[in-house]
Every structure is written in structure tokens, then in C-alpha cells.
Amino acid sequence: MLTIMDQTPRPKFRLFVDTALTAGARVALDHEQSHYLKNVMRAGKNAPVALFNGRDGEWLGELAALGKHHGEVAILRQMHGQRREPNVRLIFAPLKKARLDFLVEKSVELGVSRLSPVITRHTDVGRVNVARLRAQAREAAEQCERLTLPTVDAPIALAQLLDQWERLPVGAPPLFAAVERLSAPPIAQALQNVAEVQERAFLIGPEGGFSRDEVALLDKAPFVFPVSLGPRILRAETAALVALACHLMLSSGDACIDDATDNAPSST
Amino acid sequence: MLTIMDQTPRPKFRLFVDTALTAGARVALDHEQSHYLKNVMRAGKNAPVALFNGRDGEWLGELAALGKHHGEVAILRQMHGQRREPNVRLIFAPLKKARLDFLVEKSVELGVSRLSPVITRHTDVGRVNVARLRAQAREAAEQCERLTLPTVDAPIALAQLLDQWERLPVGAPPLFAAVERLSAPPIAQALQNVAEVQERAFLIGPEGGFSRDEVALLDKAPFVFPVSLGPRILRAETAALVALACHLMLSSGDACIDDATDNAPSST
User: What structural domains and CATH numbers belong to chain A?
Assistant: First the structure.
């Protein structure tokens, strides 16, 4: 029988703050958060607000003060403790606006822990607005009830990334590179063949694919595992999501899935 | 070593036509296709065009005539034979514009064979433009090098769908229903536990989730298998993609993946 796992009523507002969260604390909201609550959502005094900071789990508070440019939440009690989240990095060639927005939102929903834009030969996007990517990642995290924000890196050239990877002090973790029209094992098989390590990383090329030189670079790097996502030609943002979804569903790294099973009431 | 699997140069234009494809045939293009080639893409006479019809594989042709309202392609030779494609149905509560567009495009890329809009209690979209969904599905299929178009059904109420399902002459195939905040096994586990049948079907609820009555209906239907997509709260379109990606990666039904392995040159 299907039973409801969590009956706690959830506040309508959920915000990330970079402040310690403890019962009785008063937490200041920044200008944008205050504006959002006051002018966009028209939140009233004492409205319940959920807060998380990436470290202390999720807390229930209520709006103690709300002006045009500042606001304050009085913390009441913890709703959830911090839980382990997946450790998965997405390295992607930046895309044009709507598709990039989509890639960020979806990969945050799928639990990505680090987003790294990489510049390749056929990347047809000039400038990457990292601040904008961070703001979008934050908004998506607030929306999907994550307890952390992903790290968003500044862009780096592919050759430089591979060079740094090789010289990582911890040893080079496997980098699964999605390739098209090239001989490579299906992703599910590749993921099962490579022992699970601390962090998993996926590399997704631009719409135009990797150049011949880039394919040669990837081919000779011992830590790169080329993977196929099937015979259809996926758009870059679709490829990113398929890789993340496949990883999450097959890995034991998503505490999420453990939790979902562990928390199921024994009466079912 | 990474080797290129298919060196055939691909035409810039790829279109679905509902006509038999054989060498030497001349195939008429419809008004929209002619307009697209002439005015949007400014295709020249004799430009190479790839055609598929869902039955005869993919053929190379060249533009033999192109006017404002009509065009004709002379078929030269077959590039690929028809191959088996996944048999997977997505039943989804319609979403608002951008997210619905996205859901259709992505699920076509992921090989969905049938798209079925379903009306639930919390569906907040009044009217479903089925013709528009079909046009989008066609465009996405042309883009991602599929050899078929998915079927797009007219909307149906959830209760009616479940009722019809139960009385299917072939017996009711399993229907995997993505549920949130309810006790359900992770999707990867559920897919592996249920024997693979002809068709797989996934049900994705609306943004507001299923109502209590709907959960009760799903709960008592013997052919419904509730599945969890993890602890984060996914948007409806993300949930659809995760389910499809997970299915494709775990199933043997995606000839795509077989092909990718089979076609790898033996010299690798």
C-alpha cells in the first residue's frame, strides 16, 4: 500500500542563506530575497519560511521583519537533518540561453554537485555569465528541496582541464565522456565496469561535437572513459541529463535513494 | 581507440514524409516543408535531403524542384535500413507551454514511441493542442535522426485511462507510476523486478502531484507499479525524462544500444 512518507506541512517559501542555522537565531535575508518575498510573493508578517545553508539541514522559521530591502527570519526548529547528497560533477560546453537555463535547472534537480563550463573548439557561445549560472542553480536548489547548492566553476579550456586532471594530487578520477558517432560502450555498462570512487564526472561536448583534435586528446587520456548514450543524436542538454539520470539511478551515491527506501514505513 | 562509426556525410536537411521510399521515386514535399527549405533554410536546387517515413529506413535524395508552396525530392539511395526502436509510452499530465515543448522534444530524443496526455485533478492546463504536439514531435524526430514518429494520443481522463487499461485484450501491461513523497521502490529496482514485456509505460503526474483519490485509484490497480525517482522534488518534465532515460539505459529494448555495440568496427 502507498503511504505518505512525510506529513510535515511544507512552507510555501524556501530560501538558501549563508548563515548558521540554530533554533532561536534570527537570520537576515538579502536584498533580492526580501524583494522576492515582499513584492513578488506578497508574503505577510509571520509567514512560514524554510531555510537551508548547505550544512545544517533544513529549518522552519517565520518572517519576523520584511522591508523593501531587508528582511529577517526567526528560526523555530529543524525539519530535516543534513543528509549525504550525490557527488557528481558535470563538465559541459556552454549552450545558448534557453538550453543553458534548462541544463542548469535540470542538473540541479538531478543532484549535480559541481557544474564546470568548458570551452571546446565548436563551442559557439562567447561569454559565460557565471554569476547568472550561480543564481539559477540557487533558485533550482530552493525549488527542488535540495539541502546544498552546487559549486559553479569559471569556464576553462578543454585542453587545460584535461591537463589539470592528470595532475590532481588525489589521482585522476574517471571522467566519462559522452561521444557520438564513435565506438564506445553504452553508459550503463561503462558505469558498472568502473569502480565507484569519491566523485563521478561527466563530460558533455557542444552541439557540434568534439573536434578531431579533441577526440584525439580524450582518446589518449588514461582517465577518460568514452560512453555512448545510444544511437539517436541527443542535443547537448539532453545528453547531460541522460548521463546524470543514469548515474543517479545506478549508483549507491544518491543518499536520496537510500533514504527513500530506509524511511518507508514498515507497515507497508 | 575511438573510431568513427559512420563516415557517410549527412545531408543538412532531414524530413519525415508519409510516402513509400524507393530508389528512383520522386517524393512531394508539403507546403510547410517547401516553405522551410525555400524561405527559412534557402536550400538550393539539387541540395541533398534525407527522408524517412517510419517504415523504409532513411534515404538520400536531392531537391528536384522547389517552389513557394511545393517541392519534390528525387530519391537516390538508402542510407540506413529500418531498425527496431524502443516501445515505450509516456503518459503525462499536460504542462504549461515551455515545459510541455521541452517534454515533447526531450522524450522524442529519448525514443518515446507513444505520447498520451492524461487529465488529472491537479492538471492546470485547460486545453491540449494535439496538432501542435504532433508537429513538435515530428520536428524533434527529424532533428535527432530517429526513423519513426511517435504516436500522439488525444487527452483522456486518468480514471478512464485506468479503466481501459484493465480491459485491454492483451492483458494489462505494467504501468510504472512516478510518485513523490510516497513509499515506493526506486525506479531502477522496480524496472529490474518486473519482467520486460512488449511495451513499457510510464505515468507522470502534474506539478501538483496526484490527488488523494487518484493515489487510491493507482494503489488498487493491480497493473500499476509505483516508483520513486529519488528524494528531490523533480518538476514533472524532469521526472518524465528521468523515467525514460532510466528505462532506455536498463532495457534491452533500445535497438539503438545494441546497434551501437554491434556496429563498432572489429579493429578497435
Answer: 13-80 (2.40.240.20), 88-256 (3.40.1280.10)
